[in-house]
Recover the amino acids of this structure.
């Protein structure tokens, strides 16, 4: 008989039972450690901001993509944050001239999108943000790409799995002009290039024609967005392959050198189709994609000089990278990099599982368990009434404890038996030595 | 000249620049480690739920305390979560009969309140939740209090700083009846007791009179809420002090024994004034308070058997504890337990700060830094153009690096000088040995 009312999590949000939470913490830990190793300092901000903070940066069009609300009796309109960059820029602006330069910040905030959820794109998701304020291109870009790659490597991915698709808006503008796009039409051509994957060929051709391009030029524009080039030999071979003057691509050279110095070049390809729709990006833009290309972008970023000044702060160079947890987890899962048990094997392992085989032992158990926990050990015990050693040990094995601590008549002499549950080895240990002997 | 538009964080929310974030991570780490050591498994849920999930549990009155919103074009009304228990109960209900018993879950979610912010009570805050499903009183209660105390101890607090104020609704009901409160008036008397701290004496007396209590009984009711009793000697001395039959307090005895077995008794006092307004609590209820008593409760909790069944799950025993970060951080800060520098000393310490003293060294620096970071070391370097060793070392000291790695002419022979920045000791190290020699 159904006695109560059943609720579901809101559409596009997720519950994280322990194994799924272990996956989330595993990814977050790799993100955090890579950030810190690369000298970034962690920050956080509110989960919601004044709605205007987002429209000032992205225009009124963003409002329909946001969850917005007011406080009862208040006039302010708030929105759940769809991204972190406005919060970061607001915090940097608030520091004003006291901000140390460069400032390297990272954050692992929750973000929200009010659109209909799709594969790889949920209503609520985590996104790792890595930002550098006060470094020009290409140094800032390389600084934010370094932890991204370090984290992916530590999660088990290599350049054969994921690639950094880089572009440079100056280089693309040059290529577009070489195709015959008029200066005034360059922004519209950028937008078209950005939508290449999402537009049917006829629609792409129709929009291309509005740029005063002939059929051949439209084909070459489409070709720009469909090709990727090795960056290892510099701009000259790319220019040859595209049939353009190599000086059009010279903005790529300092980037290539900086990527090479950090050992990042094997991950990188020049992708003239990477535009990043967000209007405030400048210069270098990039996305990280699964090499197969089946999923949405794992990460994306670029340069947003000027945003901090827009929020009344100093006029500072800035660039950043955002990596979401949803696509990344799909890629890791597909490759078996999250274990073969949906996260169970990523859960914390108990150092000891304590069992009591008689009443005297049972009365000593809570105090002993408390002492071991106070010593920093992860300790569990059975809540069942059984004194059957076999049943108790199988409970210890189910929670994957490293050792079982068996309390029997020996406790009268302050002794316990410690059984290594992997090797089966047993030792008698004085209770006073138990914490030390169980410490890994 | 102000060029842009200045934004503030929404009222009642916080920005966390790096030192404040280090404080937050310090508290969270203590919460997480204590939970895991005590055998709890971490979960998370959505930041917002269907509004009805909260009204089903707490009644329509809660709506004015919530931030609520809809999705454009959708009918569902959502609310930012004011607490975690409904989400946890929903997740437990969804598991149904497959839920292992007992289930011990913890979470460190962000919560929201739409009311006007006050000291110790913000619009957005973290709350550590520790819950046990499937254990009856008092075992469940002791299971959730154990990690709470373990975390406080590790943060530097002792029973001289914080106390657990415990009560038992059965015991209080007995005491109220002994005062002459009619059975039907017991819930109203509970509510009055719960508001004792917030009501002016005249208002308290006026409301007491509506319970058909005479002046002397009202005074004794007020007295109930103003006294706390050592639990160490059991219920008998408390009953004597209150002038009531000791059988009225017998529900405290099993609790006292269980607290003693885990070593928690020194932290605990019986406080007949602890009621916990939340209507769904049953049996034992508790709050953790600063012993001085100046701040709001650090934590609170109790038993909520029946809630999972209310959400269409099995009828399971359950109890839990919630500890917020706001009051706790005030208490830790007041006692100097967060360092004397607003969190700076809690920030991650670089293992090495690498400096280059000539062009050849500078060209080797990015690759060397990348190699050290890939080895798991936290490594920084200067972004300034200077080759002045003194200036570079003072930058290394400012970020509190453990060692400076000085690259000079020696790099031609693959050598670097490593300087311990605490002791001043210097050693020459082969570049290939650098990672190993810097690993703490």
């Amino acid at each position: 008989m159904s006695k109560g009312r059943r609720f579901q999590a809101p559409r596009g949000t997720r519950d994280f039972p322990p194994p799924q939470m272990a996956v989330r913490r595993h990814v977050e830990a790799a993100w955090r450690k890579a950030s810190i190793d690369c000298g970034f300092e962690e920050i956080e901000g509110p989960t919601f901001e004044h709605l205007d903070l987002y429209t000032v940066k992205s225009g009124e069009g963003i409002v329909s993509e946001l969850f917005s609300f007011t406080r009862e009796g208040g006039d302010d309109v708030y929105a759940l944050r769809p991204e972190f960059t406005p919060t970061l820029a607001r915090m940097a602006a608030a520091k004003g001239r006291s901000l140390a330069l460069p400032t390297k910040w990272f954050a692992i905030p929750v973000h929200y999108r009010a659109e209909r959820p799709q594969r790889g794109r949920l209503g609520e998701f985590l996104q790792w943000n890595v930002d550098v304020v006060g470094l020009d291109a290409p140094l800032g870009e390389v600084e934010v790409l370094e932890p991204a790659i370090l984290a992916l490597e530590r999660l088990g991915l290599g350049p054969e799995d994921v690639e950094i698709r880089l572009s440079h808006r100056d280089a693309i503008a040059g290529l577009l002009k070489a195709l015959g796009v008029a200066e005034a039409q360059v922004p519209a051509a950028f937008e078209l290039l950005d939508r290449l994957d999402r537009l049917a060929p006829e629609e792409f051709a129709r929009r291309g024609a509005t740029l005063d391009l002939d059929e051949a030029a439209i084909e070459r524009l489409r070709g720009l967005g469909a090709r990727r080039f090795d960056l290892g030999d510099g701009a000259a071979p790319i220019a040859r392959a595209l049939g353009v003057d190599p000086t059009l691509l010279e903005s790529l050279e300092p980037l290539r050198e900086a990527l090479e110095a950090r050992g990042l070049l094997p991950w990188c390809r020049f992708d003239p189709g990477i535009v990043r729709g967000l209007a405030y990006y400048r210069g270098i833009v990039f996305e990280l994609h699964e090499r197969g290309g089946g999923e949405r972008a794992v990460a994306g970023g670029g340069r947003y000089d000027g945003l901090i000044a827009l929020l009344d702060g100093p006029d500072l160079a800035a660039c950043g990278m955002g990596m979401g947890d949803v696509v990344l987890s799909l890629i890791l899962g597909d490759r078996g990099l999250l274990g073969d048990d949906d996260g169970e094997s990523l859960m914390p392992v108990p150092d000891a599982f304590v069992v009591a085989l008689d009443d005297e032992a049972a009365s000593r158990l809570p105090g002993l368990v408390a002492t071991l926990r106070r010593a920093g050990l992860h300790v569990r015990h059975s809540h069942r009434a059984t004194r059957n050693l076999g049943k108790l040990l199988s409970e210890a094995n189910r929670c994957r404890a490293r050792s079982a601590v068996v309390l029997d008549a020996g406790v009268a002499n302050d002794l316990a038996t410690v059984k290594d549950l992997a090797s089966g080895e047993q030792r008698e240990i004085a209770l006073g030595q138990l914490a030390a002997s169980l410490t890994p």
Chain A has a mean pLDDT of 92.
